[in-house]
Amino acid sequence: MEDIRWLGFQWHDKPYYASDYFDQLYEWAVKMIRNGKAYVDDQPQEVISEQRGVPTRPGIESPYRNRSVEENLDLFERMKNGEFPNGAKVLRAKIDMSSPNMHMRDPIMYRILHEEHHRTGDKWCIYPMYDYAHGQSDYIEGITHSLCTLEFEIHRPLYDWFLDQIAEGDYRPRQIEFARLNLSYTVMSKRKLLQLVEEGLVNGWDDPRMPTISGLRRRGYTPQSIRSFADRVGIAKRDNVIDVGLLEFSVREHLNQVAPRVFAVLEPVKVIITNYPEGKIEEMEVDNNPEDPEAGKRKVPFSREIYIERNDFMEDPPRKFFRMGPGREVRLKGAYIIKCEDYKKDEDGNITEIYCTYDPETRSGGSGANRKVKGTLHWVSVPHAIEAEVRLYDRLFMDEDPDGHKDRDFREFLNPDSLKVVTNCKLEPSLKSAKPNDKFQFQRLGYFCVDKDSTDEELVFNRTVPLRDSWAKKNR
Fold first, then answer.
1. Are 158 and 107 within 8 A, CB to CB?
2. Cα separations (Å) of 288 from 76, 187, 296, 300, 388?
3. 179-263+385-476 falls under which CATH superfamily?
């Protein structure tokens, strides 16, 4: 219910429950017994299932099928009164044991279950089965079209048959089936998703890798992006698999319009600008979102020492590498052009510090800002940086259709790199006040949102999607 509201929808009146109609459903069942359309069967479930047979040959009629109306009424009332233990008796519809549709072979309408109900308490010890309660509840509520997925198509004759036994006048709800939404690189079966949760292969139903609404919400998807995706996909009468890239495109499209741009460095290396005055702090004015003129600007502190991404520097860069390398110039976004003069490595050969000079005439927005260089890097001021944990989520499965291999278990295709946790990330200070579910574009990196695990002491961000779809390119 929370997910429905979050998506932007609401009930026209209130939520309805089948348990609201238990009294009416019981009365209709009594009516069907009186009309010779239902009977009490003493056989266990296993025997009833066996007697149903197979679609190519008729089933076997129950020896209790032709009980008198009086006996059936008496037994059904005693079932309701709790005189029999679980499994001792069931109420079955009396339809056609030779029907090629197995659902029409005297389906069970009621079973005995001595358990307290979460809404009706201990009032009932018999409970209606889904196929019986479905159409009758629709009838009570005035439903015109009852929308189901394709596997319920074979249930439709039974849906209509039950309605014919109780309906008065011309009004009938109509069941219409359509294909369920299947996404590539995931599974949509609730049974299999439950398996992932129970086996600890994901961290609950709202794990950001899960295709649940709560999972998508936690990952940073917006209601608008999910509705846009649904509009693009539409409704089909045939099962098909929708490329998850379309869902990712939909959220990129929306977040591009609304998400503020911020500076975040996930794998930092320190840059020291040797000719920048020690102790000097400048405030660089940058756009919050160039796609939204009303989003305004903010000021980001700049100092002699900054962090850049480790992979934005190479000791021996190839010809088309337009980021930082020895002797190369790059522009710091919203700030200055700097030039790499030297660097330092540790015993393992890792770069620990980069030494640069800056051109004070090239400040963004100033008269010398027009000097062109090919590379532009994001950055964070060292003395002003705040730390955060960033969770880089990827697709949960490596196979496009993990559920489509009859000879292999879907879990064999789990992506071992579907979650990478990066600690000690450096963020600009404006993010200190970010709250759970706040969404941002980390410049040059992708779209991220604040996770519910965040605390006042440590922010936690989830990557929603990268700026571009790198998966398709990576897996060609």
1. yes
2. 69, 37, 6, 11, 20
3. Ribosomal Protein L25; Chain P (2.40.240.10)
Estimate to the nearest angstrom the gap between the alpha carbon of 302 and the chain centroid: 39
Say if residues 263 and 233 touch (Cβ distance below 8 Å).
no
In CATH terms, the fold of domain 2-177 is Glutamyl-tRNA Synthetase; domain 3 (3.90.800)
100-156 residue pLDDT tens? 999 999 999 999 999 999 999 999 999 999 999 999 999 999 999 999 999 999 999
**Every domain range in the chain assigned CATH 3.90.800.10:** 2-177
8 Å CB contact between 419 and 393: yes
Indicate whether 413 pLDDT > 60: yes
Question: Alpha carbon of 16 to those of 8, 275, 392: distances in Å?
Answer: 19, 71, 40
Q: Is the pTM of this model over 0.85?
A: yes
Query: Which residue stretches of 16-155 are H helix?
Result: 22-34, 45-52, 69-80, 130-141
Q: Under CATH, to which class is 264-378 assigned?
A: mainly beta
Tokens 């990330």 belong to: 425
pLDDT tens digits, 345-401: 999 999 999 999 999 999 998 777 788 899 999 999 999 999 999 999 999 999 999
Query: Any idea what DSSP says for residue 223?
Result: H
CATH 2.40.240.10 domain range(s) in the chain? 179-263+385-476, 264-378
Distance between CA atoms of residues 299 and 277, nearest Å = 20
> In 3D, which of 260, 280, 276, 392 has the Cα closest to residue 332?
276
Cα end-to-end span (Å), the chain: 40
**Considering only CA atoms, which of 91, 82, 92 is closest in space to residue 113?**
82
By the 8 A CB rule, do 300 and 262 touch? no
pLDDT tens across 189-207, in order?
A: 999 999 999 999 999 999 9
Considering only CA atoms, which of 425, 409, 429 is closest in space to residue 461? 425
Q: β-strands 305-309, 446-450: how paired?
A: unpaired
CA dihedral angle for residue 396, residue 434, residue 453, residue 212, rounded to 10 degrees: -40
Check residue 303 and report its DSSP letter.
-
- How many helices and strands (H and E) does the chain possess? 11, 24
Residue 234 and residue 174 in contact, taking contact as beta carbons nearer than 8 Å? no
